[in-house]
Specification:
Elements: E1 3-7, H1 14-21, E2 29-33, H2 44-55, E3 59-62, H3 70-79, E4 82-85, H4 90-100, H5 102-111, E5 115-119, H6 121-124, E6 157-159, H7 168-178, E7 184-186, E8 191-196, E9 199-204
Parallel strand pairs: 1-5, 2-3, 2-4, 4-5, 6-7
Antiparallel strand pairs: 1-8, 8-9
Length: about 210
Amino acid sequence: MKRLFLTSSFSSVAKLFEDFAGEPLKGKKLAFIPTASLVEKVRFYVDDDRKAFEKLGLIIEELEISTATTEEIATALERNDYIFISGGNTFYLMQELKKKGADKLLIEQINNGKLYIGTSAGSIIASPTIEFVSDMDETKKVPELTDYSGLHLVDFYFLPHYLNFPYKEATQKIVNDYSPKIDLRPISNNQVITVLGNEIKTLEKPKRATKK
């Protein structure tokens, strides 16, 4: 059964992950893939997510797709309990996954029931294709990528950071352009889309009660 936890920002919704996992998290092993962020100038969100996982008690094994061999990737994905892919440039991430055959390895692991967690780019790649986010991510950084197909773990198209800074205009443009054509699912940084078999839910981080 497929188990997906698709976020815009994992650190913002980490509390919801505890319930979704349905098991004690302390001591669980996580393959942590930061590859998408390598071509970005701003990368603080990778550290934020890493700290959020550590706070939950997970043991992190960093797996850099662009420098690892296909065999190393396969072994790391197999030996860890969960798989996480960070945010960054979606097109660069997909290029590196395809180059190493890691796209197929991921699909195999996830179809066999391994829990997958994505942030931003790491969630977008679960879609059938990634072409629809070209207004958010630069494609010029990936001259080698000619095939924009995603992992197709879901039949909908995941759009992160909806109406959040600095993507407010870009995400609204994507919604305007694509929502009449495809099953677009936009979520904010405080939301998550969970997939458990055929059950798909959109959850939101509870708002803090304001003091009177």
